[in-house]
Amino acid sequence: MSRNYRLLVENAKQVVLICNNGEKFLTKMGMQNLCIIENGSVVIGTDGLIKAVGPAETIRAQYSESSFERVIDATGMCVLPGLVDAHTHPVWAGDRVHEFAMKLAGATYMEVHRAGGGIHFTVEHTREAGAAALLTSLSGRLARMQRAGTTLVECKSGYGLELQTELKMLQVIQEAGRSLPIAISSTYCGAHAVPKGKTVAEATEDILRVQLPRLKELMSGGRLRVDNIDVFCERGVFDLGSTRAILQAGKDMGLNINFHGDELHPMNSAQLGAELGALAISHLEEVTDEGITAMAEAKTAAVLLPTTAYILRLPQPRARDMLEAGVIVALGSDFNPNAYCCSMPIVMHLACVNMRMSMPEALAAATINAAFALGRSHTHGSLEVNKQGDLLVLNAARWEHLIYQLGGHQEIIRYVIIRGNVVHDNDKTLGL
Ligand SMILES: N=CN[C@@H](CCC(=O)O)C(=O)O
Ligand SMILES: [Zn+2]
């Protein structure tokens, strides 16, 4: 093949494809048996898409006449798909480090929230912040996630709780998506908390009558791109009835349902999500057996967030029960001022130790299944021909080191590649 390509990554000790049959998600045994090529190579075209992935000698023979803008010799190294972070709240102003001390001293999440901290504290500061300042801090956070291997990330609004600030956040997310290599799935989360001075009914009314109609107008005029709708369905926040009304209205506008459920109390959020055809539900620390069955049947992904249970000392989500029931289990960092973690390798480590997932299950949950939870598993989450050329090259001969070395991703990730372009070269960053 005598053509020009963007990138050849050759001779990797392991190339972890995840799957190779166009699967949109993996469950049960599929998550245990990831597709791995020993001594493999990957070719990415000038359009940023994967053109070939296979044994090194086959690729060498097929592409012997071709030219590449860049060749990476990955001898002794591993190649994996870029990681997908299925749940973050990365747009905000105001420092909440003081709350960490409160929580360490025993305050619960809802106690901090009721004391005027938590989401309300962040809402006050985010309402006051200018879009430029929010974009600067968001870009820094996304760059950090990218260095930790994330190439597709879900980003929520939700620290405005009124039209102007929610729109400001969504526009900032859109701008970051335009200016940075990392891909973004954008989520309207106007029902993240009930604004101070409003009842649940009044807040729901504002979302249904004011916020969503304006969003719809901007989206249909092509001025705003939003992918998902989210609600914090929780006792003392949005009840089941208001959650249903908001999610259904979002779905009617073409948004994917992807919401917070069954986190602090069993709310039957899982059953509601399954009934509404939700693409994903996050948290689920308090999900019931019936909720697990409903999600497995409806093919609604469970986005588990190990950092939340860890920081708030909550019961762990029942990952094993979900996996055994055939639920599509995905992972997210839940990056937010409460859980300040930008690293999906740390999230996978916590999922393995605290939630008893195996390393292959955790990697599937942080790649193909997280991509499915965002409606993007046709382009992301595995190394297959015609998918986006997003990959990690590890300074390690076995891929499991990415999870095993707690907090070691900074040294272990040599390259982060998005659409065939090297966006992070660890040697250069560290000046080695
Ligand atoms: N549970 C609700 N929302 C966030 C926390 C947001 C915050 O505390 O600012 C979460 O997913 O953990
Ligand atoms: Zn969240």
Describe the structure.
There is one protein chain. This protein has about 425 residues and is α/β, with parallel strands linked by helices. It is built from 19 helices and 16 strands. It has helices spanning about 30, 55-60, 95-105, 110-115, 120-130, 130-145, 165-180, 200-220, 240-250, 270-275, 290-300, 305-310, 320-325, 345-355, 360-365, 370-375, 400-405, 410, 425-430, and strands at about 5-20, 35-45, 50-55, 65-75, 80, 85, 150-155, 185-190, 230-235, 255-260, 280-285, 300-305, 330, 390-395, 415-420, 420-425. Strands 1, 2, 3, 4, 5, 14, 15 and 16 form an eight-stranded mixed sheet that branches. It has an eight-stranded parallel sheet with strand order 6-7-8-9-10-11-12-13. The longest helix is centred in the middle third of the chain and has 21 residues, at about 200-220. It is globular and about 70 Å long. Pfam families: Amidohydro_1.
Percent range for β-strand residues: 15-25%
Binned, the helix content reads 40-55%
DSSP helix count? Answer: 19
Overall 3D geometry?
Answer: globular
The radius of gyration computed from the alpha-carbon positions, rounded to a whole number of angstroms, is 21 Å
Mean pLDDT equals 96
Poorly predicted tracts of residues: none
Q: What oligomeric arrangement do these chains adopt?
A: single chain
N- to C-terminal separation?
36 Å
**What ligand molecules are bound, each kind once?**
N-(iminomethyl)-L-glutamic acid, zinc ion
Q: How is the main sheet built? A: 8 strands, mixed
